[in-house]
Amino acid sequence: MQYMADVKSPRPQSRAAAIEVTGLSHIYEGRDGQVPALQEVSLTVGAGRFVVIVGPSGCGKTSLLMMMAGLRHQSSGTILCAGKPITGPDPNRVGVVFQEASLFPWLTALDNIEFPLSIRHAPREERRRRADAMLNLVGLKGFGTRYPHELSGGMKQRVSIARGLVQDPPVLLMDEPFAALDEQTRMTMGHELLRIWDETAKTVVFVTHSLTEAVYLADEVLVMSARPGRIIDRIDIALARPRTYEMMATDVFGRLRERIWQQIRRRSD
Q1: Same domain, 134 and 252
Q2: Where in the sequence is the domain holding 164, given as residue range(s)?
Q3: What CATH number corresponds to the domain at position 58?
Q4: Do 159 and 205 reside in the same domain of the chain?
């Protein structure tokens, strides 16, 4: 297809596994007894890959991501990051960006980015150097002295991404980070995220409800069933990189999006 041939090939990616989830299940206590949330979830995310998880509301996408981050504990199964178990939060291996930016309103953008380093008592000079570098990486050079109320929604999320990257974890987990943004800002942020991902060579696992966003960002899309959440499809997104907005109008993009939608619709009915 000539359109695709004019775009450069994807960057080389390692075959090593950054994340391995095996036989993961989770049951929580509800009003009427035990409720199965996740059932026998197994997946492998290769180092340097951009993997997106989609599925109907309530299927356990966020729970799965929080377990990968060590912020929740599964009922059974194992999670390995770089070959070692995840038993709790480990910012040296895994960074997290949440749906809400959750910035401290009394701290400047630069101080918010520095915060994870300050609580680990990193030297001030090192904190400032790394925070400055992350501020530049996310395109906010010159905004370091601004407070959250002086920033737009998209700018706040850039600060949140910078905070997630400042400790230089190899894996970045992102839970619907652009959900609260308007469509135009969301598309811009998605494009910016791909630039950051390309520059940093991180492994990204990204949860979203937007099928268009999923296809646009991902190397691979994992589709989950309704509760109890299971992986019901793995879709390789064989679109060349760098991604462009024009790709969204192509037949191949539409077919990929439709395949995801049909899987979710069929398993949710």
Answers
A1: no
A2: 100-168
A3: 3.40.50.300
A4: no
DSSP state of 49: -
pLDDT digits (tens, 9 = 90+) for 59-71: 999 999 999 999 9
pTM: predicted TM-score of the whole model, two decimal places = 0.90
Better pLDDT: 257 or 16: 257
- Report helix, strand and coil shares of the chain as percent, to nearest 5: 35, 25, 40
> For 130-194, what is the HEC assignment?
HHHHHHHHCCCCCCCCCCHHHCCHHHHHHHHHHHHHCCCCCEEEEECCCCCCCHHHHHHHHHHHH
What does the pLDDT read at residue 102? 87
Instruction: Take residue 94 and report the two structure tokens written for it.
Output: 């895994």
Q: Cα(123)–Cα(102) distance, rounded to whole angstroms?
A: 24
CB of 86 closer than 8 Å to CB of 165: no
- Out of 149, 168, 187, a domain closes at 168
Pair (105, 219) in one structural domain = no
Per-residue pLDDT band for 192 (boundaries 50, 70, 90) equals very high
User: Which of 25, 22, 62, 60 is CA-nearest to residue 42?
Assistant: 22
Verify that 222 and 145 share a domain, yes or no: no
Residues 157 and 107 in one domain: yes
CB 231 within 8 A of CB 224: yes
Q: Where are the alpha helices (DSSP H) in 69-144?
A: 109-118, 124-137
Residue 18 lies in a domain: no
The total number of structural domains in the chain stands at: 2
Is 100:163 a contact under the CB 8 Å cutoff?
no
pLDDT in tens, 37-50: 999 999 999 999 99
